[in-house]
Design brief:
It is found in: Secreted. It holds the Pfam family Serpin. InterPro entries: Serpin_CS, Serpin_dom, Serpin_fam, Serpin_sf, Serpin_sf_1, Serpin_sf_2. Keywords: Glycoprotein, Protease inhibitor, Secreted, Serine protease inhibitor, Signal. The protein has 3 domains: 275 residues, Antithrombin, Chain I, domain 2, CATH 3.30.497; 91 residues, Alpha-1-antitrypsin, domain 1 (Roll); 239 residues, Antithrombin, subunit I, domain 2 (Antithrombin, Chain I, domain 2, 2-Layer Sandwich). The chain is globular and about 85 Å long. The termini are far apart. Helix 11 runs antiparallel to helix 12. It has 832 residues and is α+β, with helices and mostly antiparallel strands. The strands form 6 sheets. Strands 2, 7, 8, 9, 10, 11, 16, 17 and 18 form a 9-stranded mixed β-sheet that branches. Strands 20, 25, 26, 27, 28, 29, 33, 34 and 35 form a 9-stranded mixed β-sheet that branches. The chain has 18 helices and 35 strands. Strand 22, helix 14 and strand 23 form a beta-alpha-beta unit. The chain is 25% helix and 35% strand.
């Protein structure tokens, strides 16, 4: 028998009650003019605009895809129910446990942003309306034998409207009765007995429950019972069943998705807040839809929706689904909560010694019924912790995916898969096997889904990869701007094709579809234009073109609309005049910090296109260093030994940690705008990595999101040198070692740039500069890509030894500048 304190039971329930959960359109070959059958009274006058904010549903679709992979029948889950349960765990989690939850759930980078996100969702769901009924509530029961941390109780009450109740969990019958009664009340009696086995509460010390109930009606009375007909539903190519179809002819928003190979139908509920979407495959199977679906594809498809007259048939169906999510969550990357290393110490402290709390099961119960009158849907999550389109037809007579969304916040309340409308139950079962664990070396290795870290995180891998390659080529101090180089290279993607394009995409870690590329770039560029509280960031790009070149209108338009790149004609035949104009532009956009990027006479007369990108950053420290505290102290330079340099010092609260995977101390020094920081990486074992080669390589294996989430507020004596670095780098060689080869050679494919001509990249030159002092930082960078005709071929953190630094946007995790300090007394280093 495990000790009482070795267990924690977390129980979450979410019930969604909606008047009609499935929308399907039916084909009637006899009807040829649908519009003529729609009376003015039945036309929907709503002006549908899709949710245009950042979607918080990557985890939702990852979870759904994983469950669909391992279950052959109908599937139903409530993503928001699961996330509300897990985020209450996250609030009390520490270290690896917290990092895994944050990464896989794609939580915002800061705890405050996470609280704001869920607080906004809850406010939206709790907003009163006469058009529908929605109840939502959360409770945490903690055993009397455990002391609840006041900070945790206050946090969950303030941001998640969750009450913490002390009770005697040893009295399993009484506590089960209370929980079941509360859940039944929240769900209007639809789940009467969530805990039907009181033995599961034995040895428990904590129980978390959340419930959601939604009841609504269709915006219009679309489906009359007298129109219901029996017809075939094709489970697969060889098997069909007879099911009842609801039928209507009306106007709906509808789209064809080429990426999903499917039709998408939207049916709104009364109140103009909720809607159900049905995704019906064309010739492909529903498995193709499940594999390809994600919030970015859906966002693009929803914006393409048009209101059309449609002939709609939806099968009536009713089923329940029970899933044990431990195996699924482990595969997605949430593993620590299930191991005896789980750190949930932020929730409670015990009155006597006990083992670590750990999750023993995550169970999710759901149910749905769809008929002419509407939809009833309910869900419960239990976490046990122990140790142009013409008029047409939409006929859902084959397996399909559906989801219900709060369109004001983009929150997915419910997502499901119907393989057979007649099947009424389904379960994943409790898998009794050794599951993957980072501490079980014999277990099968599970590779996290790329979506777990997000496309943006992979886009960030380029930053450290470039730093590592440049680091190999240069000695001494170094400063470069990955963001500036990335803006220039990403804009090149628009004008390339074939192998040239594939190499750029691979190096930048970008997906092939232009929508996602442009979305990521726009998000990055938005973060690179701001002025707040004395901290200024600005980016500018310009394409200089020979007046004789006839460029592709599509490419120039894409540059302007998606990358903010303006286009100027420039006669490269007069090399001095051309260099002067380019340098004048660079000086203007770097606030005169970079005087020139091109020396007069160095621009080849046969240059056809030149792309320049400039990034300017000026930041004041959030906590300035006292100039009177600056002292001349020893900085240990490899080979040369001790050199006296000005060392700034501050004693205050900083986010800091020793990161074992890097074998380095890391400190974050925030700037005054609250969204950018300088990170300093100081190797713990100085003698084993004097030139920072190992550290720069190891940084390639840790995402910036992971690094930031690993840092903790610490009272710190911080001492760093003043330094001033300027580097002029040719990035061609580093990029070639990263796999970008075609753009420099005879096979370069720039057909998107111009018609009937061949081009190649001459050089990619970046001039970057940084100055760090007691008040803050000034950093600037200019990147030039020359294209020529294809001619043939309370701790103490003392940075008194070499270190790597990075200036990071905390919202996007974009690395604006990165570099290396080998000797602060040297003001300039690095040339090409």
């Amino acid at each position: 028998m495990r000790s009482k304190l070795e267990y924690l039971l977390c129980f979450s329930i979410m019930l969604i009650f909606i008047k009609k959960c499935v929308c399907v359109v039916t084909p009637n070959p006899v009807e040829t003019n649908i519009s003529s059958q729609i009376t003015p009274q039945t036309e929907d006058d709503e002006d549908f605009v899709p949710y245009h904010g950042e979607r918080f549903s990557v985890f939702d679709w990852m979870l759904f895809r994983n469950l669909a992979k391992t279950n052959a029948g109908n599937i139903l889950l409530s993503p928001i129910s699961i996330k509300l349960a897990l985020v209450l765990l996250y609030e009390g989690a520490q270290d690896q446990t917290a990092r895994e939850l944050a990464e896989v759930m794609q939580l915002p980078l800061s705890v405050l942003a996470t609280r704001e996100k869920f607080n906004n969702i809850l406010k939206s769901l709790q907003a009163p309306s006469s058009a529908y009924t929605l109840n939502i509530g959360s409770r945490i029961y903690i055993d009397n034998n455990v002391l609840t941390r006041q900070r945790y109780a206050a946090t969950v009450k303030t941001f998640y409207n969750t009450d913490v109740i002390n009770a005697n969990l040893s009295d399993t019958h009484t506590i089960a009765t209370k929980v079941n009664s509360w859940i039944s009340n929240v769900t209007n009696g639809h789940i009467e007995k969530m805990i039907d086995n009181e033995e599961t509460l034995e040895n428990s010390v904590m129980l978390i429950a959340n419930g959601l109930f939604f009841k609504g009606a269709w915006r219009r009375k679309y489906f009359a019972p007298e129109n219901t007909r029996v017809s075939k539903f094709y489970i697969n190519a060889n098997e069909s069943v007879d099911v009842q179809y609801m039928h209507t002819i009306s106007r709906f928003y509808y789209a064809e998705s080429s990426r999903l190979g499917a039709k998408i139908l939207r049916i709104p509920y009364d109140g103009s807040k909720f809607a159900i979407y049905i995704i019906l495959p064309h010739m492909s199977t529903v498995d193709h839809v499940i594999k390809q679906i994600n919030p970015f594809v859906l966002s693009s498809d929803l914006w393409a929706m048009q209101e059309l007259p449609l002939n709609v048939w939806i099968p009536k169906f009713k089923f329940e689904f029970t899933s044990h999510l431990e195996n699924t969550l482990r595969e997605l990357g949430i593993r620590d909560i299930f191991d005896n290393t789980a750190l949930l110490t932020g929730i409670a402290k015990t009155k006597r010694a006990s083992k670590h709390l750990q999750v023993s099961d995550v169970m999710h119960k759901t149910g749905i019924e769809v008929n002419e009158n509407g939809t009833i849907a309910y869900a419960a999550t239990e976490i046990q912790i122990g140790n142009k389109i013409e008029e047409g037809t939409f006929y859902a007579n084959q397996p399909f995916v559906f989801y219900i969304e709060d369109e004001t916040t983009g929150t997915i309340l419910y997502v499901g898969l119907v393989r057979n409308p007649l099947n009424e139950t389904g379960t994943t079962g409790k898998i009794q096997q050794e599951l993957p664990s980072r501490f079980n070396l014999n277990a099968t290795t599970v590779t996290p889904s790329p979506a777990a870290t997000g496309t943006e995180d992979r886009y960030g891998f380029f930053n450290i990869d470039l730093l590592q390659r440049v680091n190999e080529d240069n000695e001494g101090n170094l400063i470069l701007s990955p963001a500036s180089a990335k803006v220039a290279l990403t804009s090149l993607v628009e004008g390339t094709g074939g192998q040239t394009r594939q190499e750029l995409l691979a190096a930048l870690r970008l997906p092939p579809d232009e929508f996602t590329i442009r979305r990521i770039t726009r998000r990055t560029l938005m973060s690179l234009k701001s002025y707040q509280n004395g901290t200024e960031i600005d980016v500018a790009t310009r394409l200089w073109i020979n007046p004789m070149i006839r460029t592709s209108p599509g490419y120039t338009s894409a540059l302007y609309n998606n990358y903010g790149t303006d286009i100027q004609q420039l006669n490269f035949g007069d090399a001095n005049v051309a260099a002067n104009r380019i340098n004048a532009w660079v000086r203007e956009n770097t606030k005169n910090n970079i005087k020139s990027i091109i020396q007069p006479g160095t621009v080849s007369a046969d240059t056809q296109i030149l792309l320049t990108s400039v990034l300017y950053f000026k930041g004041q420290w959030m906590k300035s260093f006292d100039k009177d505290a600056t002292r001349t102290r020893c900085f240990r330079v490899p080979v040369l030994g001790c050199k006296d340099v000005p060392m700034m010092e501050s004693t205050s609260q900083y986010r800091y940690a020793y990161v074992a995977s890097l074998d380095a101390d890391v400190v974050e020094i925030p700037y005054s705008n609250g969204r950018t920081s300088m990170l300093i990486f100081l190797p713990f074992h100085e003698e084993s990595d004097p030139y920072l080669q190992i550290l720069s390589k190891d940084l390639s294996y840790v995402t910036m999101r992971t690094l930031l989430s690993s840092l903790n507020e610490t009272e710190l004596v911080l001492s760093i040198p003043r330094f001033n670095i300027e580097s002029k780098l040719n990035l061609a060689s580093p990029l070639m070692r990263m796999g970008v080869l075609d753009i420099f050679g005879t096979r370069a494919n720039f057909t998107g740039f111009i018609h009937n001509d061949y081009l190649r990249i001459g050089n990619i030159i970046q001039n970057a500069k940084i100055e760090v002092n007691e008040e803050g930082t000034i950093a600037v960078a200019a990147t030039e890509l020359t294209i020529v005709p294809l001619m043939g071929n309370t701790a103490i953190f003392i940075a008194n030894r070499p270190f790597i630094f990075a200036i990071v946007d905390l919202n996007t995790t974009e690395t604006l500048f990165a570099g290396r300090v080998m000797d602060p007394s040297m003001s300039n280093s690095g040339n090409f």
